[in-house]
Amino acid sequence: MALKTRSREILAALEAAYGQGAPTPADWLALLVVDADLPGLDAQEVERNTIQPHLGARPKGRYQKRVPFSWSHEAVGSGDVAVPPHFDPLILASGWSRVALTGTATVAAAPVAVAAPTGTWSYTVGTGFTGANRRRVTVTCTTAGGSGTAVATIAAPACGLGATAEAAYEAAGVAIADATPIALPGGAEITPTVGTDWAVGDTWAIELIPPGIAYWPSSDHRNHASAAIRYNLDGTLMEAPGARFQMGANLAIGGYPLLTFRGAGLWRGASATPLGTPDFSAIREPAVLDADSFQVLVEPVDLSAAAWVPVGQSLTLSGGADARSKSRTGLDSVEVVDHAVTGELLVEEPAAADLNIWDWAGLYKRIRGIAGTAPGERCEICIHNAQIGSPQRRDDQGDGMVSIPFIAVPQTGAGDDEVSVRFF
Predict the structure, then answer these.
(1) What kind and span of H or E run contains 97?
(2) Which of 77, 289, 302, 356 is most solvent-facing, going by the fewest CB within 10 Å?
(3) What confidence tier does 195 reach under pLDDT thresholds 50, 70, 90?
């Protein structure tokens, strides 16, 4: 009787040491995957080019044996902003690092000047942000002067969808004085120190970021995590330690938000092993992406102006790690060798009189896609420094669409700050 392809179980565990498998049986996590290819044996082949008096085939040898993997995960959080999603080992094994954002780190460290204000100031963060959405808060001077004289209006537009939507915020007549705390939306609090006197109309922006789990590319290749994978097809088990992956993303109207994984692990043969009984009851069900559950925003990298909120169709990422196999004396591994991330944003083309996106080629923008509406379950793809390529027009049932390609370029010499995946 044939093996049934629907009878599959996939487990993963982070390795304590490369290629050594799961440290203990309790470390194995059942993965709820979609669109999984059936793995087999992949290997490099070398033909024996022997000189023999016949026209037949020559035998081949094999080396660098691998188990290739390809599947996706629904991009939904654990339901708790402090707990990573269940497929966390795969993201880490794709050469990304995990950062828990909480406390005072949820408030930008410094204000961003808008349109060259006359005054200057700085602040310290006293209390972190506990709101539900990223917020661009503006501080606009309404009464000129220095510390104790200047007065400002603090405002933020409405944002978010569904259960996590937040109303517009405005506080007028806020006195600006050294060592006197200022309240911001979402419970955040900062204490200013005024430098040069403020002038009426001076404006700054402050970004507030909700608590959550963020993943960033890591160039620390010597310390990249690796995973052990167990892939059981109807009682035939392939266990592959030393696995690493390339991660991508696909957020599109009419589908579920997906993170895609493609990689390989070390071949250790196959064995007869009964299927287990994985428990997926704690894994949240994502929302189908629609107008009320998916947003895209495009804004200046430095947030010096408000975001453009296009009528969007999809946001995709590819790259995110190139996992390559290596075989040398004393070395048999799969390694992440680069992090070049590319992508595409597909939106309705705006009228040039409203926004001329054809002038964007070569410029840098910040692009964000937010999937979901439930606290702790949402996923945000943020390209912090997207260099725009050459836009291309498309037709969608008579509607003029435009595809905006981009590459994610590191913002600093050290890199690893060009793109993030957040669950919040």
Answers:
(1) strand 96-101
(2) 356
(3) very high
Grouping H, G, I as helix, E, B as strand and the rest as coil, residue 136 is strand
Radius of gyration of the chain (CA): 25
Q: Dihedral of CA 377/323/317/68: which sign?
A: negative
Cβ neighbours of residue 26 closer than 8 Å, sequence gap 6 or more: none
Question: 339, 333 in Cβ contact below 8 A?
Answer: no
Q: Which H or E run contains 91? A: helix 88-92
Rounded distance, CA 57 to CA 217, Å?
46
Q: What burial class does residue 387 get, using C-beta atoms within 10 Å of its C-beta: 0-12 exposed, 13-18 middle, 19+ buried?
A: middle
Residue 263 phi, psi dihedral angles, 5° rounding: -170, -155
- In Å, how far from its chain's centre is CA 288? 19
Q: What gap in Å lies between CA 175 and CA 152, rounded to an integer?
A: 7
**204-243: burial string, b at 16+ Cβ within 10 Å, e else:** bbbbbbbbbbbbbbbeeeeebbbbbbbbbbeeebbbbbbb
Which band of pLDDT confidence, cut at 50, 70 and 90, is reported for residue 321?
A: low
Q: CA-CA distance, 154 to 180, in Å (whole number)?
A: 15
**Can you tell me which residue has the tokens 């196999």?**
325
Report the distance separating Cα 371 and Cα 284, nearest Å: 13
Question: pLDDT tens for residues 40-96?
Answer: 999 999 999 999 999 999 999 999 999 999 999 999 999 999 999 999 999 999 999
- Residue 178 token pair: 């050294």
Rounded to two decimals, what is the model's pTM? 0.94
Give me 15's structure tokens: 């390795």
Residue 198 near residue 117 (C-beta atoms within 8 A): yes
Query: Which two tokens mark 56?
Result: 């037949």
Q: What does the alpha-carbon distance between residue 115 and residue 198 come to, in Å, rounded to a whole number?
A: 14
